[in-house]
Amino acid sequence: MRAERALRDTHIRLAHGNGGRMMRELVDGIFVPALANPLLDPRVDAVALPCEPGQQLVVTTDGFTVQPLEFPGGNIGSLAVHGTVNDLAVCGATARYLTLGVILEEGLEVALLRRVVDALAAAARACKVSVVAGDTKVVGRGECDGIYLTVTGIGFRPSGGTLGLASVMAGDSVLVSGPVGDHGAAVILARQEFGLHGELASDAASVMPQARVLMGIPGLRFMRDPTRGGLATVAHEIARATGLAIHLDEARIPVRTAVRSVCELLGFDPMYLACEGRLVAVLAPQAAEAALDALRAFAPQAALIGTVRPGPPLVELATAFGGRRLLDELDDDPLPRIC
Amino acid sequence: MRAERALRDTHIRLAHGNGGRMMRELVDGIFVPALANPLLDPRVDAVALPCEPGQQLVVTTDGFTVQPLEFPGGNIGSLAVHGTVNDLAVCGATARYLTLGVILEEGLEVALLRRVVDALAAAARACKVSVVAGDTKVVGRGECDGIYLTVTGIGFRPSGGTLGLASVMAGDSVLVSGPVGDHGAAVILARQEFGLHGELASDAASVMPQARVLMGIPGLRFMRDPTRGGLATVAHEIARATGLAIHLDEARIPVRTAVRSVCELLGFDPMYLACEGRLVAVLAPQAAEAALDALRAFAPQAALIGTVRPGPPLVELATAFGGRRLLDELDDDPLPRIC
User: Is the preceding peptide bond at A334 cis, omega within 30 degrees of 0?
Assistant: First the structure.
């Protein structure tokens, strides 16, 4: 038997995906040291997890194909953790476990992979989640673009809550936890290489603290993280599911000056740009002020940005200039690989 | 508001991944009808699942990048279900839920996607598992090769079993549930377009019935499905984890004539070719005959193929000609995208 050997290659080869020695070296050399925890065992096909008594099991899955792989404020690894944890957070669950599916392109720099896995591991530690199972595939040059990740998140929440679209009603207030569009604008800029991104970084982060605070507010109806398609798309999802109208007040929606500038320069609308560290919440009107106060301890720019009104289901923006404009559902306006 | 509209496109466009109307049409037009079940709700970010009292939660994840996407005996959709269900089965768990991460290439034929999703749905129904959460991303032409899937499987098993590598000991018997290498050989042939694949099809199928029967045999130590790297790689995993030697008897290992021919023609060794519908089991020697009898009801070609012996950890094959050869760990012998 060959002794265990550290990963010596500088670039990923097809044989790193073949199930044999080189794959083991890749897994043992990069993934296991970064992600080590008592449940993670690369020798087994599946992991047993403790169910938590009196709690509901909550599961989500998300693919990450962001381009470029590294951008101001994070990389595909940290983004994958935050995106997945946030999907659990807005459902009122505490994230506990992640599984990690990795697709690598032949020729990828191992140093880049290491940075991505290290960022993923750091984000997981900060979010108090463990990567408990994983899988790695390698495809040929030109058959993927560096690294794609698919992460499944497993969490728990108390049984019997009413959080969800079905609880939203006319008269409710709409909050956002901070400025919108930072992630989308930062990724677009990182792609364009304009040299403009000095002050603009992705907002990618866990919204678990904000979600947990809101879960303590009676009158919380619904939460969602505005990722692909941004704030306007979350508003449309609420309108479509409830048959109600969402009225947003442009003057109250926080947008960073740098994001506004990028949008003006490149013809994007910040209402449709992805966030990766914000949440939108719908609350009973009498709960809105308490929620805002509680949120601001974590999220100083949290704002009350609109109201839910009787239908028809549409999304209307009261503009800063006193007019009104309908925010259409995002149509054939591709911003591929933003997350 | 636009009325709901069926998917009209014949090919995938980047905008099918943008989070807006076109993505909704793709999800509602293809995924939701095929995969419909009471837990699947495309409007929510995460799904709540019932924990089963007295049971352990068991989780696995697997990526699928097989090329070609369709091959004799299945396609990437059915393969993804069987591969994931099998990882749970060999851990003694009953698969219950799947999550589905999809990465699509711009320009993919929608008709092909539909065949894949339909096969995935049919396999899931046959395996009695529900797809409860999903995510779809679209990347540009040349940034993936048609369709990549990442599936997470969630199952349950009774608490307190001893199934696992730690239970394997010298003297144990090694069984395989049927002929090895069918999947690998079928995929290689489908790639090569030799026109030879008339009688050769992938073995991709659920091994849940076989695993469940074996779970009822006292003396069962360990099960594993021999996928990437084949039977030899499973044997190496056992040897490495236990410090014991695995002796295999070539004359007893079932290999179809067609698989043998492909291997001779193209220079592959069936010991290293992937199966997707077989399991390898290690049992106490006195349990082997009972296990074989029980298995043969489902798997007529199940065979007792070897024994576990005192170390050093190596994998040795008693050849059909009376010699012995060491089966090395699979090294730089890439067979990329076999699953």
Answer: no
